[in-house]
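Supplementary Methods, section 5.1.

A reviewer requested that the exact input to the structure prediction be made available. We therefore reproduce it here, unchanged from the version used in the analyses.
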Amino acid sequence: MIRSLLSLLLLLPMLLSCVTQERVQRVELIAHAGGEIDGYVYTNSLEALQQAASRGYKFIELDLLLASDSVLVAAHSWEDFNKMTGNSHWGDSVLSSADFARQRIHGRYTPLTAPMIEEFFLENEGLYLVTDKISSPVLLSKAFPRLKERMVVEAFSYPHYEQLCDEGYYRVLYSCMAPDLSSALVKNLLFDRLFPGKRIEWLALHTSGLYYPSYKFMNKVRRFKVALFTLDNYNDVAPEQLQRAGMIYTNTIVPE
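The structure derived from this sequence is encoded token-by-token as follows.
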């Protein structure tokens, strides 16, 4: 009896690993900010985009900013971009799309403007563009008129969420960073019949958000699908929490 219990205890980590691995194989991985390239993250570069596609990612995320000439470009922030291009003295100065495109990230990588992004995804039909930072339906529709059905958009307000759903985007994630998240969830969950609108199905949630009491409560009322960010090691999240993720943003985990 004791020997059997000891054998079971020894096998338990392996069994848990198998369960986690089976779950992980069903998760859709998102290459975060284009994915890691040569040890760099957050490059949002053409080369990172190309590498992510070659590694088998179906979903590739890019951070979007508005250049001074109203063209969308891919960068996490103006301050970060200026540092990465050796121009930290520019601070958070906003560049024109032409000046943006002339820079080189870490001295070697090519910055992406909206026309370049759309062209890449049109040439790679099996890929989906995941966006961050900007959820304005007007800006996104203008920048990527031919990609709506292959875009996953993180929405930062309920009006944006409703409009993006109406316009036929492939998937809309409600951001945990949205200022009106709590009121939107309460409205969605408790007053869905009284307030016509699009029901929130997906949340873009930071790993720490899985443990927030408010999320746990809301999730008991109705389970949400979760796009989890940013995870580079499956062991960093408890298996029962990992089970809630339908999508995972990652810099380094490569699709199998």
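The chain has one domain: 26-250. These observations are discussed further in the main text.
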